[in-house]
Design brief:
The chain is α/β, with parallel strands linked by helices and about 280 residues long. It contains 9 helices and 8 strands.
Length: about 280
């Protein structure tokens, strides 16, 4: 008779393995400011709207916090409001429809919503939200309008802006052959549109508001060089292959780098007094 492991036990083991891998990756790259940034993050009331790459970043934060011994309360937002010392997050509907994500995020921050009273709020689009056929100017205009309205309605909330994540591009002999023939490697055109959106985000908010430049983190190698692919006589940033196992989502290495960058950005946000309901 062959013994089998119950499905729930398998899922538990896989989850534990992922957390251990992320913790090992984070420990290998610990930096002096990590603990300070995490302690500041742990004291905030944060609301984060995201999808799967956002989940990767959260996993990275949890692993980094475990490594540094910093208690970090991460909860899936279900009840109205964000409690003190809480990193609340919500999967916002839906992938492939960024305008709906904006509406979902706005609803969550309305009075009585899951993100109401947040000290820091941020929305992250997914790489599937911006593709080669996306009207980037229209999407950015909608983002800027929505965030502007939310800021006016929530003056005590600091909005952290997030650049759109990237994907890897076609590699190997086939990818290089395409470049030699003047053709884009698969993924380049999608990343080009994402970079257009990200350039607008940097131009509008860089230096004027907190910006979590996830795309820059994803495209920067450990030695500081940038992963790119050729496009229309220039170069387009791409996700570093070492940071992913499937070409889009972040592995332990990518999660650790993204988490460290996000913690630093949120830690830099000036403190705001808690609203009466959140105290």
């Amino acid at each position: 008779m062959i013994a089998t492991t119950p499905p729930l036990a398998v899922h538990a083991l896989l989850g534990l393995a992922a957390l251990l891998a992320a913790t090992v990756a984070a420990r290998a790259r610990a930096e002096p400011g990590d603990r300070r940034d995490l302690q500041a993050l742990a004291e905030r009331r944060v609301f984060f709207g995201h999808q799967s790459v956002g989940e990767n970043v959260i996993e990275g934060l949890q692993a980094l916090a475990a490594q540094e011994g910093v208690p970090l309360r991460v909860v899936e937002a279900r009840a109205p409001g964000v409690a003190a010392g809480t990193f609340a997050h919500e999967v916002v509907a839906e992938n492939g429809d960024p305008l709906r994500k904006l509406r979902s995020f706005a609803t969550a921050l309305a009075p009585g919503g899951e993100g109401a009273g947040a000290e820091v709020a941020l929305l992250k689009f997914c790489y599937v939200d911006i593709r080669a056929d996306t009207d980037v100017a229209a999407l950015f205009a909608a983002y800027r309008k929505t965030i502007g309205e939310l800021q006016a309605a929530n003056p005590a909330t600091t909005f952290v802006h997030v650049t759109a994540p990237l994907q890897t591009v076609e590699d190997g002999v086939r990818g290089w052959a395409k470049e030699l023939l003047g053709k884009p490697r698969w993924g380049t055109q999608h990343n080009a549109r994402r970079e257009e959106f990200n350039a607008l985000m940097r131009r509008e908010y860089g230096g004027n508001a907190p910006l979590f430049d996830l795309a820059r983190v994803e495209s920067t190698r450990p030695d500081g060089s940038v992963e790119t692919s050729a496009w229309q006589g220039g170069a387009v940033p791409a996700l570093v292959p070492a940071y992913t196992d499937d070409g889009g989502h972040l592995n332990a290495e990518g999660r650790a780098r993204a988490a460290r960058a996000l913690a630093a950005v949120i830690a830099s946000v000036p403190r705001q007094p808690a609203p009466p309901a959140a105290r």
